[in-house]
Amino acid sequence: MPPKLRVVGVRKSYGGVVALAETSLDLREGEFLTLLGPSGSGKTTLLMTVAGLIAPNAGEIWIDGRDASGQPPWERDIGMVFQNYALFPHYTVFENIAFPLRMRRHAAANVAQEVERILDIVRLGHVAGRLPSQLSGGQQQRVALARALVYRPSIVLMDEPLGALDKKLRDQLQIEIKQLHEALKATILYVTHDQQEALTMSDRICLMQNGRIEQIGTPQDLYFRPQSVFAADFLGESNILPGRIVSHTDGYATVVLDGESDLRLVVRSDQAVGPASLMVRPECLVFLDDQRPGAFEGRIASIVFIGGTTKYLITLSGGATISLNETTRRDMARHRGERVRFGFAPEDGVILRAT
Amino acid sequence: MRDRGGGSGWLARARGATWIWFLAPVVLYLVLLMVLPVGRLLLLAITTRDGTLTIDNFARAFQVPVYLKVFWITLKLAAMTTVLSLIFSYPVAYLASIARASTRVWIVFLILLPFWTSFLVRTFAWLVLLGKNGTINSLLRALGIIDAPANLMFNFTAVLVVMCHAMMSLCVLTMLSVMENIDRNLQRAATTLGAPPGSAFWQVYFPLSLPGVSASALLVFISALGFFITPAFIGGRQETVITQVIIEQVLELLNWPFAAALSIMLLAISLVIFYVFDRLVGISALSGGAGQTGLAESAQRALPRRGEYGRKVLALIGRISDVFVAPLQRRAHHRGGETRRFGVLSVVCAAVLAFLVLPPFVMVPLSFTETSFIDWPPRGFSMRWYVTFFSSPEWMAATYRSFVIGLFSALLAMVIGVPAAFVLARRQFAGKVGLISLILSPLIIPRIIIALALFYLFARLNIAGTILSLVLGHAVISVPFVVVTVMATLKNFDQRLEHAAWSLGARPWRTFLHVTFPIIRSGLLAAFLFAFITSFDELTIALFVTGGVTSTLPKQMWDAAILQITPTLAAASTFLLVVVMVAIGATEWLRRRTAA
């Protein structure tokens, strides 16, 4: 089966400024792929070229096996949810959702039937006759979703659709979008700068920076196997410690950190000997009570209670600070200033390309 | 503790009646200098000399065919001016609303230029363009298209063209104030949902721009209804409008009661049209009439809920236009560029802008002619007409008087208008719509009626012709501009800044001085300039109230032009053009400096 969307060597620059370096990407049928990155990373530019709202300087866009590169947006068979929803203020909810069907010359009876079906799915049947301005933010969002999904377009594009909502509503709608995605078997290309959102919703995440793809993979891939300092830093919390690989045996590397020459850390990695950074997630670090070799030693600088977890900031003798997360227990008895030993399993450390 | 009940004490007090005093001056002023004098005019029309009621004056207007014909011509001219202005202004406003910000700034500048240029100067320019030995005739003869000069003036078409020129800048600015609040993403959203550009425009953008269209239609129609400068100079006897008849009745025949009756009829027509507009769209759409922003909500609220029929008509227009537009757009898409997407539209807009901007500048070369009459092309180069203008006691006295009157009437309008604008922008209260109607009414009531009413009042107070009378009169018509501009400025002002200042210990007056005023300063300056130019360019009131040694610059120009268009007039016009360009440039410069 051909991919639903193929982006081949697409590139866009404005004057001398490169908004999107040459980029290629495939989307399987039914896949939920998120373009994740900070502002200016090129994710919205990429989305807009797929929509046909920005003409790229080079490259091809294939939608559902057709070359759509020369097609204007209205012929591309896409659905798009805009950041501020772009609901037509002079149309009722019903008319907004009917709009794409009417543009496709569906018969009136069919239009009514399809709109009612999707309104049921997003649970907005009772507001069909209202104007967008009479709806709450969450309801407007659901109308925008319904409008982009009602005609079952080949792909649905979403440009930070939850950006304007408060956290609680956002969490709820994340789940709703995910359910819609599964129920309608839609193929979705989603843009966000919120890593939590990307991790929650995506089948795959495409991490972008400076107009190019930094890394692409499943959420678990990106979280546990980041390939760059940027990827490790952008997703989740991380301790990134510069140092060098000094030796190498059977797929395990021995790392010495800058400023901690006594400490020999063993990490699962195939990287060659040379400068490298070590990345460990705070929740992968555990306190150690025995005198095992290869453990960090340091002093607790502060303890932050965050509900379910407790975060310890620990200063090493070389001056670096490492954060360690531990599941909160009622009887925890560590205190500030205490000397502690801690470490991680070789599989939990990640060696990053030197930057 | 001075404030009993702590923090809520002063809030409660502020919620009390003090703000009434902010509204009192403007209400009092307009009642004394507009409502009552216009009422007096009505009384004049329906009473005889000895005080008994009569309808003779109205009967005469209906019985004598010539007056009905004049009314008919006036209405026809106003209606056609409105329709043509709307058709040609729409593309310009549309382009300005979707163009890049830098392009929009340029278009707005080009629109403001004719907007601020005196109606008289613009009319004189057309006299030169259309005259027997004028620019167009000379050009056509030079090209060998015609042998003898064509008669371009003194017909209905000529009046219509020049009227459109006079009204279109107002039309564009009013539409733009609504259009720039339409979310640009809506059209893009429509295209991603499968709507070709034609459908996206007609079904999404166009309906949303309708409040702007109807507000423009209203303002243009009512302004055109009372407009007399163009018919007086460009039109023949056949194109006499009602205002000219009223002026004639007062100034030449001294028949006040009949002039009053005609005025009341004109007023009635205006009010009926205004009422219809209010039913359809709502009055609040008007408060953006000066090309200011902040109309989004009122436009939203006032959106006409079209029925199924309207939707189908627009859908059909959309599909028809898709047939023509879509192939062009697809070609543009293949070329991979967005730059040429507005090709046809840009050409139309450039033509309209050229029509609006260029004519007044025909006066510039003429002012340097060596001959003592106006002829095209001008001959030689000399400064003698500037010498004549600047050394003539009458011209200089009139110029000086116009500056002084402009300055003081603008100050007066600010003093009574700004406090009212604060209350109107920030408070909801019963009767607010009525109050806005009162403040905007000098824009709605044909200028001639206010002029007549004021003339009658000033004559009885024995101050007609004094600088004071003109300051008072011009403030009446400047106040709505001040209130509208300041309200628009305040809509963009974040009131939380004031709350922050209070929380930091600043009292209301110091808050205004150190926080509010510096931020809205450029808006206030714009309001002041608006009022100043309104007065500086005002002719109708001056026509009645002044005479001989007490002329203002427009009145002096009118009197001179009635006799003949001379090179001195061209020099005076050029002088006015320069003043206007400097004023717009200064405002723009100030705006950028505050923005930076």
Relative helix content of chain B: over 70%
SSE string of chain A, helices as H and strands as E: EEEHEEEHHHEHEHEEHHEEEEEEEEEE
* Beta-strand share of residues of chain B: under 5%
- Radius of gyration of chain B, in angstroms, nearest whole number: 26 Å
* Mean pLDDT figure of chain A: 90
Low-pLDDT segments, ≥5 res of chain A:
none
Average of pLDDT of chain B: 83
Radius of gyration of chain A from CA coordinates: 25 Å
Task: Enumerate how many helices of chain B there are, as a single number.
Answer: 27
Main beta sheet of chain B, described?
none
Low-confidence stretches of chain B: 1-9, 287-306, 334-340
Reading side by side through the largest sheet of chain A, how are the strands ordered? 6-7-8-3-9-10
What is the H/E order of chain B? HHHHHHHHHHHHHHHHHHHHHHHHHHH
Strands of chain B, total number: 0
Oligomer: heterodimer
Shape of chain A: elongated
Distance between the termini of chain B: 43 Å
The major sheet of chain A is characterized as: 6 strands, mixed
In percent, how much strand structure appears in the residues of chain A? 35-45%
Largest interface, counted with CB-CB under 8 A?
A-B, 35 and 33 residues
The gist of it:
The complex is a heterodimer of chains A (355) and B (596). With 355 residues, chain A is of the alpha+beta class.
Structure description:
The complex is a heterodimer of chains A (355) and B (596). The mean pLDDT of chain A is 90. Helices cover 24% and strands 37% of the residues of chain A. Chain A has 355 residues and is α+β, with helices and mostly antiparallel strands. In chain A, a hairpin with a 2-residue loop joins β16 and β17 (309-316). Chain A is built from 8 helices and 20 strands. In chain A, strands 6-7-8-3-9-10 form a 6-stranded mixed β-sheet, sandwiched between helices. A 5-stranded antiparallel β-sheet of chain A has the order 13-12-11-14-20. Chain A has a 5-stranded antiparallel β-sheet with strand order 15-19-16-17-18, with no helix packed on it. Chain A has helices at residues 43-51, 93-103, 108-121, 137-149, 167-184, 195-201, 219-224, 229-234; strands at residues 5-14, 17-27, 32-36, 58-63, 66-67, 78-81, 155-159, 188-192, 204-209, 212-217, 239-249, 252-257, 260-268, 274-280, 286-288, 296-306, 309-316, 321-327, 339-343, 350-352. Chain B is built from 27 helices and no strands. Helices cover 75% and strands 0% of the residues of chain B. Chain B is globular, with a radius of gyration of 26 Å. Chains A and B meet through β6 and α2 of A and α9, α10 and α15 of B.
